[in-house]
Amino acid sequence: MSTPSAAISLPSGPIQVRGACPHDCPDTCALITTVDDNGVATRVQGNPDHPHTDGVLCAKVSKYTERSYHPERVLTPLKRTGPKGPGGSGQFAPVSWDEALDDIAQRLQSIAARAPEAILPYSYAGTMGMVQGESMDRRFFHQLGASLLDRTICASAGAEALTQTLGGKVGMKVEFFAESQLILIWGSNSIGSNLHFWRYAQQAKRNGARLVCIDPRKSETADKCHEHIALRPGTDAALALALMHELIAHDWLDHDYIARHTLGWDPLRERALQWPPERAAEVCGIPVEQIRQLARDYGTTQPAAIRLNYGMQRVRGGGNAVRAVACLPALTGAWRHRAGGLLLSSSGQFPAQRAVLQRPDLMPQAAAGRVPRTINMTTIGDDLLREASPAFGPKVEAVVVYNSNPVAVAPDSGKVVRGFAREDLFTVVLEHFQTDTADYADYILPATTQLEHWDVHLSYGHTDVVLNRPAIAPLGEARSNAQIFRDLAARMGFADPCFADTDEALCRQAFGDAVDYALLESQGFATVAIPDALFAEGNFPSPSGKCEFYSARLAAQGLDGLPDHLPNYELQGTDARYPLAMISPPARNFLNSTFVNVTSLRNIEGRPILEIHPDDAEARGIANDAVVRVFNDRGSYQCHATVSRRARPGVVNGLGIWWRKLGLDGTNVNEVTSQALTDLGRAPTFYDCLVEVEACAAAAAAESVA
Ligand SMILES: Nc1nc2c(c(=O)[nH]1)N[C@H]1C(S)=C(S)[C@@H](COP(=O)(O)OP(=O)(O)OC[C@H]3O[C@@H](n4cnc5c(=O)[nH]c(N)nc54)[C@H](O)[C@@H]3O)O[C@H]1N2
Ligand SMILES: Nc1nc2c(c(=O)[nH]1)N[C@H]1C(S)=C(S)[C@@H](COP(=O)(O)OP(=O)(O)OC[C@H]3O[C@@H](n4cnc5c(=O)[nH]c(N)nc54)[C@H](O)[C@@H]3O)O[C@H]1N2
Ligand code: SF4
Ligand SMILES: [Mo]
Questions:
Q1: What are the pLDDT digits (tens) for 558-568?
Q2: What is the residue with the minimal CA distance to atom 3 of ligand 3?
C-alpha cells in the first residue's frame, strides 16, 4: 500500500493523511494523521476543516497511535495449540497466511457442502466502515449461503420504533441544536458518548437555552444540565405519555400541525389522557412537579429539540418508549423549526448502495425464492448451545467473528462462554488483539486498523460522508477484513467478478454517484443535501407521509398500534431476592469493549466499578471501594463499589464493558444481563436486569494481603 498519493501537504518531512474515526460513535469524526519520514504515524488529530469535528477528538481516539502500535497487536495469523478459553499467549502458535487460509477455506467448504447454514458470521460495529464492515464479508457469506445475522445488539429497538413513527432513521440536523431554546437530552450521556453534539448543546446553553437530562444515572452530562430527571430505568414511555397529558390539558398543542401532518391523534389523545402526571410520577419514581414543569417547558418553548439516544431503549418496552418520545415534536409543531424536533439517528439519510456492496443476490437460496435462516446476535448464548431441530435448522458448526467481541459484550455471558468453548465449534476471529472472544478461536487472523486501510463512513449523528485513506502500511502481516474475505473467496473458487473488487473500489461503490467522490478525495468529507427543517411541512418518509402516532403496520403484526408504557420484564419489587435494578452504561474512556487494553485509558477508568447509592450501600454494609459481588440467577461478577449519588436509590450502575480477563475475577457485567428481547426490533435488554449486591469478604481479604 503506498501512502504518498494520500498526502495532503509538505513535499518532505511529516505528511498528513485525512481519515475517518472508525468507532461506533454518532460523531464520525474526520481525522488527520501525521506520518513521519519512516512511515510511522505519530499523531491523530481532529480535522479542523470538518465543521462537526472542529479539530477536536475525544480522549480515546487521541490515543489512537497507542492503540495501533500496541505491543500486544496480533501481527501474524495464529493457530490454537491448547484448550479453548483464556490462559495466555502460549495457547496459540504463529502460522503463515497460506496455511491458515487453506485450512479455514477447506473447513468452511466441507461444512457448506452439507449445511451452509451451519456457518454463522458474527460482526458488529468494531469499525463502522462500509468497506471493512459490510461489503466483501457480506458478499462472501451470501455466496456461501451461510446463516444471516440479525444485527440487533445496539440500536434495533429504537430504529424500528423510529421507522414505525417517522418512517426511518431520520431527524434533526445536529448543528441546529445550537439554535434551540430547550434541549431534552433523553437517555444519553452525551459528554461521554456524543461529544460533538454536546458542543452544539453548549453553544445553545450560552445563548440562553435550557438543558434537561433524563437519565436514571447522574451522569457527567446530568451534572452540566440545568435539570436532571432521574427516573427509574424503563419508565420513559410513562413520562412521555404524562407529558402528552399535560400538553393536552393546557392546550400546548399545534392543532394545525397535528391535523395536517399526523396520523392517529384521536386514539393517542385517549391513551395519553390515561396518564396524569401523578400516575407517571409513581411509575417513574420522580416528583410530580418535575413532570409538570417539564411539560410546561416543552409546551411553551420554541424551538425545542430532543436528543434521544439508545441508552433508553435497552429494556423490555424500549421500542414503545422511543415511539412515545418521537410523537412529542409533532404535538407541539416543534418540527416547524430547524432547531426543533428530535434526533435519534441520522443514518437513514444517506444514499448508501447496500445491495451493490453486499450482493444479497449471490445467496444460492435466492434461486429457490428463500433466504437462509437468521440468527439474532443478541441470543448468541442460547443459539451456540442449540441442537439441530426443524425450527432452528442445523446446529452452528462454525462462527467467523470480526468487528465484535461477543464473549465480552453479548448478554448472559455464562452461556456465551459455554457456547464458544464447544470443542466441536470451529471459530475464526479477525482481530487487532487477543480479546476475550479470540481466546476461544481456532484461528486468530490479524486485521488492519483504520490507520492501515481504506474505508468510507456514513454517520448516525450527522449527515456527512467521511473517507478514510490509509496513513501507514499494514503492521506486521495484518490484512484488511475485505482483503481476508477476498483471499478466502479466491480459495473457495468464488467466480463472480465482485470478489476481485479492491478496497478502494468498494469505497467508490458505497454511494455510487449519489456522493461526490472527488470531493471526498479532496476534502475528506462530503455533506449530503437535506433540507434544514426536514418535516416543517410534514413529508415524513412513513407510508402515510405523516408522523404515525398510530401505526397500522404494527397493528397488522398483532401489536399495539399506539405507543404505551410496558413495564420491565424484571420489574423492581417483584423479586425479593433481587431488589436492585442494574443498568450498565459505557465507561467514558472505553468504547464498548474497545480500548480496555490501552493502558493509559484503562488507568483513567481504574478498575471495574459499580456505582451504588449511599443508602443502598449502608443497608448492605458496603464501604466505598470495597470489592462486591453482583449476582442474580444468571451469574455473578465482582467489581469495586463506588458509593455515590450518581446512582439513584434502588438502582446500581455497573459501568461497562471491561474485558473479562482484565476484570477482577475473569468476568464482567454481562454475566448478569439477560437474553430477553425488546418489544420492537428484537434487541437486547441490558438495562432490564435485577440483581443483589453483597460485600465480598473473601476477595477483600485477598486484596488486603496483596
Ligand atoms: N465513550 C463512549 N462513547 C460511546 C460508547 C462507549 O462505549 N463509550 N458507545 C457507543 C455506542 S455503541 C453507542 S450505541 C452510543 C450510545 O450512546 P447513548 O445512547 O447516548 O448511550 P450512553 O451515552 O451510553 O448513555 C446512555 C445513558 O442512558 C442512561 N439510561 C440507562 N437506562 C435508561 C432508561 O431506562 N431511561 C433513560 N432515560 N436513560 C437510561 C444511562 O444511565 C446512560 O447515561 O454511544 C457510543 N459512544
Ligand atoms: N452490559 C452491556 N453490554 C453492552 C452494552 C451496554 O451498554 N451494556 N452496549 C451494547 C452496544 S450499544 C454495543 S454497540 C455492543 C458493542 O459490541 P461490539 O460491536 O462487539 O464492540 P466492541 O466491544 O467495541 O468490539 C469491537 C471489536 O472489533 C475490533 N475491530 C475494530 N476494528 C476492526 C477491524 O477493522 N477489523 C477487525 N477484524 N476487527 C476490528 C476491535 O478490536 C474490538 O475488539 O455492546 C453491547 N453490550
Ligand atoms: S468522538 Fe466519537 S467519532 Fe469522534 S474521535 Fe471520539 S469515538 Fe471517534
Ligand atoms: Mo451501540
A1: 999 999 999 99
A2: 28
Q: What is the CATH number of the domain that holds 500?
A: 3.40.50.740
- Residue 24 alpha carbon to ligand 4 centre in Å: 6
Assess whether the C-beta atom of 189 lies below 6 angstroms from ligand 1. Answer: yes
**Distance from CA of residue 70 to its chain's centroid?**
24
CA dist 446 to 82, 96, 436, 521, Å? 19, 11, 15, 28
Same domain? For 437 and 324 the reply is: no
Beta partners for residue 401, in sequence order: 122, 429
C-alpha to C-alpha distance for 393 and 397, rounded to whole angstroms:
12
Which residues have C-beta within 8 Å of that of residue 274, sequence separation ≥ 6?
241
Query: Is there a single domain that holds both residue 108 and residue 200?
Result: no
Q: How far apart are CA 92 and CA 298, in angstroms?
A: 58
The pLDDT tens digits for 62-112 are: 989 999 999 999 999 999 999 999 976 669 999 999 999 999 999 999 999
Do 693 and 628 share a structural domain?
Answer: yes
* Residues forming beta bridges with residue 44, ordered by sequence position: 33
| Residue-level pLDDT at 12 | 62
Can you tell me the distance from the alpha carbon of 321 to that of 109, in angstroms, rounded to the nearest whole number?
Answer: 45
Q: For residue 473, what is the DSSP state?
A: P
Looking at the predicted structure, is the pLDDT value of residue 653 above 90? Answer: yes
Please state, rounded to an integer, the average pLDDT across all residues of the chain: 95
Q: What is the pLDDT of residue 10?
A: 44
Could you tell me the residue range of the domain that residue 312 belongs to? 158-344
Total count of domains within the chain: 3
Q: What CATH number is given to the structural domain containing 632?
A: 2.40.40.20
What digits encode the pLDDT tens for the residues 246-258? 999 999 999 999 9
Against a cut of 0.90, is the pTM above it?
Answer: yes
Residue 244, classed as helix, strand or coil, is helix
Q: Looking at the structure, do residues 680 and 587 belong to the same domain, yes or no?
A: yes
Q: What is the pLDDT of residue 7?
A: 44
Q: Is residue 446 part of a domain?
A: yes
What's 474's DSSP letter?
Answer: P
CA separation for the pair 97, 378 (Å, rounded)? 31
Residue 465 CA, ligand 3 centroid: distance in Å:
15
Distance CA 573, CA 568 (A): 11
Residue to mutate, 151, 153, 193, ligand 1, most ligand atoms under 8 Å from C-beta: 193
Q: Ligand 2: distance of its center to the CA of 564 in Å? A: 31
Query: Is 292 found in the same domain as 314?
Result: yes
Question: Based on the domain organization, do 283 and 144 belong to the same domain?
Answer: no
495-511 pLDDT per residue, tens? 999 999 999 999 999 99
Cell numbers at 459, concatenated:
454517520
| Closest protein CA for atom 1 of ligand 3 | 58
| Pocket perturbation via mutation, ligand 3, pick of 43, 54, 60, 450 by most ligand atoms within 8 A of CB | 60
Contact 419, 80 (CB under 8 A): no
pLDDT at 706: 39
Residues 116 and 210 in one domain: no
Instruction: Report how far residue 340's alpha carbon sits from residue 330's, in angstroms, rounded to the nearest whole number.
Output: 10
- The alpha carbon of 403 and the centre of ligand 2 are apart by a number of angstroms equal to 7
Look at the chain and count its residues. Answer: 706
* Sign of the four-CA dihedral 291, 294, 300, 305: negative
CATH number of the domain bearing residue 226: 3.40.228.10
> Residue type at 16?
Q
Side-by-side strand order, sheet with 15-20: 15-20, 30-35, 41-46
Task: Mention every residue, 6+ apart, whose C-beta is less than 8 A from residue 113.
Answer: none
The whole-angstrom distance between residue 119's C-alpha and the CA centroid of its chain comes to: 24
pLDDT range class, residue 6, cuts 50, 70, 90: very low
